[in-house]
Amino acid sequence: MADLLNTSLTGMLAFQRALSVTGHNIANANTPGYSRQVAEFGTRIGTGSGNGYIGGGTQITTIKRIYDSLLGQQLQASTTGQVRFDTLNTLASRIDTLLADADTGLNTGLSSFFNSVQDLANDPASIPTRQALLGEAKGLADRFNSLDQRLRELDSEVNSRLGLAVADINRLAESIADVNNKIALANNGQPPNDLLDERDRLVLSLSEKIGVSTSIQSDGAMNVFIGSGQSLVVGSQVQSLSARGSEFDPTRLNIVYEGASGATPLDNSLTGGELGGLLEYRTNILDPAIQSLGQTAVAFAQQFNAQHNSGMDLRGNLGGDFFAIDPPTVLYSGNNAGTGTASATVADLGSYTGANYILDYDGANYSLTREDTSEVLTLAGTGTPADPFVADGIEIQVAGTPAAGDQIMIRTGQDAAQSIRSLITDPQAVAMAAPTRSLASFGNTGDATISAASVVDATDPNLLASATIEFTSPTTYSINGAGSFAYTDGAPITINGTEVTISGAPLTGDQFTIEANFGASGDNSNGLQLAEIQSVGLLDNGAISINENYGRLVSSVGATTSQIQASLDAQNVVVQNAQDAVLSNSAVNLDEEAAKLIQYQQAYQAVAQVVSVASTLFDSLLAATRR
Questions:
Q1: Phi-psi bin for 414: left (phi > 0), alpha (psi -120 to 50), beta?
Q2: 595 lies in which domain range?
Q3: Are 571 and 457 contained in the same domain?
Q4: Taking every pair of C-alpha atoms in the chain, what is the biggest distance, in angstroms?
Q5: Same structural domain for residues 121 and 230?
Q6: Are 137 and 265 part of one and the same domain?
Q7: pTM strictly above 0.90
Q8: Among 163, 207, 287, 152, which Cα is nearest to 33's?
Q9: Which of 36, 162, 264, 400 falls between 20 and 30 A from 349, CA-CA?
Q10: Residues linked to residue 467 through DSSP beta bridges, in sequence order
């Protein structure tokens, strides 16, 4: 009787636990990250009798968690990619709209300004038209400043989100380590299923922030790795990340791994998740946009100033700078031990890129590396004021006493657009006329003609001095009565910074004069050249105009945004498929659990009936022994 009762009681206990597992599944049917659990039954060891073994009943051998680690890893990886593309898409779409929108972009401002230049070229003596041009100039400078400011606001947002992401990563890492510790303590031969679910949920949340890889230790604890293999969690030990200001610019946050051997920068190795998306956006989209905008601003301001300097205003003065723009920004590494300094200027627009450069000193020589491509450039010159370093269209002068290992960053375009501003406030100071003009003497007897004067060197101190070209023979001429120069039909002649050409057949005694263009209020010669600047090739060795350079920026950002959107759409499908695969394997099916509930209930009732029978038999036995 005792065997029958004991066997029945093991069944009651086993089915009671199975009912508890089923109830636990039903209660957590909507719990995120919960994996369905199954009570696995096993036969208890029987006892020997004279003619064989009598079974010992049943028992729950384990509570099995229905979870496929491979499917879980696929979900983690796809989630990392999806969040990365979502972060990129959100931010890239904003910058795309900013650059291309007529109200915020640069195209409208450039078109309006150069239309105003053309209007003044059509009526160079008009004071109201001159005043309108000055208003457009201020508006264009403000447009550069405003656009740059909006881009910098996006940069500040990236900084803030980097800090928040790092805080979330550290918090999740601490939580994973804590769960690891609990799992290790609870590992008594049976899996702590709910703790494992909690850890997998935390790792999935971590994968939304950063790309991770994992491994399981013998005690069940999980190790988590990031970047190029740096350990974030090892058992119950955690290594944290931090967001620190860069060595050149404290306002620009970089991600640093706080390892046992010290702090290690991680920006180039972190991929995936929100953190990877933010870093990728800043490096590949935002920084190039700011630099390209600055490149456009520098090219526009320098070329417009150069041409304006080559003109004459209504008062007979040579034109000055129309716009002001700051030179490249020089930043010094916080790790520098020496006192070396540098200054830079943009000297050649055709080679100018607007990129950032790192000037390194090795103890004997300087070298220059382009930051975004890591290309080491050949430096011409010696770095002195008389012989500056030259590379990529910039000139660099160095001074002071640097120490080996010192670094200097030169930002050639990143800060330019925020610094551009209009200078001229007097409408009569707009230099629309050419400063010099050419005349043919009325007494000439040959059929030679002279071209309009063109200024090639506005800095020549004798630019406004009169000069007379007199032919001493049909093939030679003198200048102001001096010298004898061979005449070539159509060849340029440069005198005091002014260039002309004489064509045709002159005769002895023919004279041509180059003189200051005083009082030429109706002259628009320089104005026409100012109006052409928007379409003249200046950048990329003269292949790209300022309009085309900005258009190239808009197109590049637009194309990148479109590619990111397409990748996001595809990744959303991948994530959905991965989620469906995990759910189909691990999710609670209420219909199935309801069926199990009935099954275990009926089994429990049946075993209870066996107990009742055993009790009745035992009572019968007792009654028989009392007789």
A1: alpha
A2: 2-66+590-625
A3: no
A4: 165
A5: yes
A6: yes
A7: no
A8: 207
A9: 400
A10: 514
At position 489, the amino acid (one-letter code) is: D
**What are the helix (H) ranges across 411-532?**
525-531
Residue 386, domain member (yes or no):
no
- Interior/surface letters 361-386, b for 16+ CB within 10 angstroms, e for the rest: beeeebebebbeeeeeeebeeebeee
276: which residues sit within 8 A by CB, 6+ positions away?
Answer: 80, 84, 210, 211, 270
**Which is it for the CA torsion 401, 406, 410, 414, positive or negative?**
negative
| Domain count along the chain | 3
Q: In what order do the strands lie in the sheet with 356-361?
A: 329-332, 407-411, 356-361, 366-370, 376-377
Spatial distance between the Cα atoms of 94 and 109, rounded to a whole number of angstroms: 20
SS (H, E, C) 185-213: HHCCCCCCHHHHHHHHHHHHHHHHHCCEE
Instruction: Please indicate, yes or no, whether residues 98 and 151 belong to a single structural domain of this protein.
Output: yes
Give every CB contact of residue 286 below 8 A, 6+ residues apart in sequence. Answer: 91, 95, 151, 154, 155, 158
Number of other residues whose CB lies within 10 A of the CB of residue 126:
15
| Both tokens assigned to 117 | 């230049």
| 61 and 75 fall within a common domain | no
How far apart CA 589 and CA 23 sit, in angstroms, is 12
Kindly list the averaged pLDDT for each block of 10 residues, start to end, along the chain of length 627. 73 89 92 92 77 78 91 94 96 94 89 96 94 96 95 95 95 95 84 92 95 90 90 92 92 88 80 93 95 97 95 92 96 94 96 96 95 93 95 96 96 96 96 94 94 91 94 95 94 95 95 90 91 93 93 94 95 95 92 91 86 74 70
Residue 58 lies in a domain: yes
In a domain, 360, yes or no: no
